Amino acid sequence: MIRAFSPAALNLPQAATDCDTAPAKALVDWGACVPKLPPGSFLKAFMAENPQVPAARRRPLSPHLTIYRWPATMMTSITHRATGIALSVGAVILAWWLVCVSNGIDGGYGTFMAFAGTPIGILILFGCTWALCYHFFSGLRHLAWDLGYGFNKKVAEHNSVTVFALSFLAVAAIFALVWTGHAGYLQ
Amino acid sequence: MRSAQTPLHRVEGMGASHTGTGHFWRQRVTALALAPLSLWFVWAMLGMVGASVVTPAQFFQHPWNGALMAAFIGFSLYHAALGLQVVIEDYVHDAGAKIFSLLAIRGALLACWVVSMFAILRIAVS
Q: Would you say the ipTM is above 0.95?
């Protein structure tokens, strides 16, 4: 009865057994298949007496982030999250700026602008601007997905490149306007 | 069919999550509001490049600009709270650390909101 349902009787691949006996033949380096322990350690001695622990340790893991080649959709997904976190920090900087404005003349606005003018300040401003541009275009793509558009694999891959391109174009356009003297029109 | 669910739980139809699509929906509604608001925000910020403190002060004293800025910051921080909550729920698995990080994030964003709103009001009445 039990024999009839064993993997060998059903001609199923015996992953755990293959992993135990012939790790060199495996196509993928499972990593966790072979637990690396210092020789003669207490843990090794203990595990040798407990047949359940080594079996659990040697169970093959499914491939994770480090194994896959990164498709464009994966890149846009993680970048959307990263820019969202960055923009949360940007909101704090914006609050600082507003407080400086509310303080009026000689109330810290000069200090803020002096820091914003340093290379680090410009880098932070550039990063926040790009993050906003990226999160904007990627967010529009998310809203389109919510309406049911663009779920096709080819379309999603293509859109990912478009979102990145648009974000870089937008941030380049914004900084080009500043450096060519087309900004500051509210003065 | 035998079930451990109470009749109320079955009628609510929420399963083990205890909540429905509220979080998802709020994230989308705030995103929809933020799309035009962020365009306005970029336009406003670009217009104040290289200006002294007088320009932004006078700009936000205008009722429309002050209200739009308050809306942009309010929606942004609410959208951020919803988004950062998902990030924490994805990566922080220890129950105590999760509750602490969620409270810390919400507290920080709420403080940021209070400070921003107070600054806008202060500019408006100055």
A: no
